[in-house]
Amino acid sequence: MSAGERAPFGARLAAAMDAHGPLCVGIDPHATLLSQWGLSDDAEGLRRFALTVMEAVAGRVAAVKPQAAFFERHGSRGVAVLEEVVAAGRETGTLVVLDAKRGDIGSTMEAYAEAFLRDGSPLAADALTVSPYLGFGSLDPAVDLALSSGRGLFVLCLTSNKEGHEVQHARTTDDGTVAALMAARAAALNADAAPMGSIGLVVGATIGDAAARTGTDLAVNGPLLAPGVGAQGAGAAELAAVFGAARRQVLASSSRGVLQAGPDVAALRSTARAAADEARVALGRD
User: Fold this and answer.
1) Which ranges carry the Orotidine 5'-phosphate decarboxylase domain (predicted)?
2) Exposure pattern of 164-175 as b/e (b: 16+ CB <10 Å)?
3) CA 48 to CA 70: how far, in whole Å?
4) Which residues contact 284 (CB under 8 A, 6 or more apart)?
5) Active site amino acids
């Protein structure tokens, strides 16, 4: 499908969340998970793991989110498996959010954008996670290509790692915070989009009241990718505390909570369905 025929990512994601529930299944092939599944920690084990997950959930959840690092650790053969996952998403009509957290400047950022967002690239996903901490403007090549090709971005904003506050909570020269600035820049890019824009934020589901403490308005008219749901401890109460009135924009991400049900396809499918139903209720979409 060419860029001219593809609806904007925000619209496609909104429809997928309505149809399947607001769940994104992370595909994180940790060495420990490969072992738990009885698979070898090599490219072939990786391939069996990733394609089994796709067999179980493709066409049944709003999105999948392969973590690029766990594929890249296996070298070129691992990247080839990642290409297969992206292709499987395309073939089954399943949105693929590639979790690569790229962020650079100038021609280098342009090259990352072409690798992950350009029509015809074997790694071109529906959306890409990006890091804005060389300045939001450094993401311009990715923003421009994402929007022109009907794809999206998830910009790191308020993350749950213990080091994140050192940058994200820092005060800017106008006495706002870095996180608030990132959210405001995303909101500006989503202005007037319906049903929602294509430039989303990554906001950890376990950050508590960090949005309020940093003055970060999460109502950016775009999707909010929320890692930390399920096995990492975030339930309905935590989601309400973190996202408040923006809860309906949340795409809850669960990795281990679903993947531990493998390698049985039926068990993976059932667990993903239950997680999607739980997320729907927790986020006020029931």
Assistant:
1) 22-271
2) bbeebbeeeeee
3) 14
4) 247, 248
5) 101
pLDDT in tens, 138-191: 999 999 999 999 999 999 999 999 999 999 999 999 999 999 999 999 999 999
41 dihedral zone (left: phi>0; alpha: psi -120 to 50; beta): beta
Q: Which fold has domain 3-204+219-282?
A: TIM Barrel (3.20.20)
pLDDT at 272: 96
Confidence of residue 118 (pLDDT cuts 50, 70, 90): very high
Angle, vertex CA 252, rays to CA 247 and CA 258, nearest 5 = 150
Q: What is the 3-state secondary structure (H, E, C) of 258-276?
A: HHCCCCCHHHHHHHHHHHH
- From its phi and psi, is residue 42 left (phi > 0), alpha (psi between -120 and 50) or beta? beta
Q: How many CB atoms lie within 10 A of CB 79?
A: 15
For the chain, the structural domain boundaries read: 3-204+219-282
Tokens of 12: 């496609």
- pLDDT over 90, % of the chain: 87
Tokens of 119: 């029509």
CA–CA gap between residue 172 and residue 159 (Å, rounded)? 18
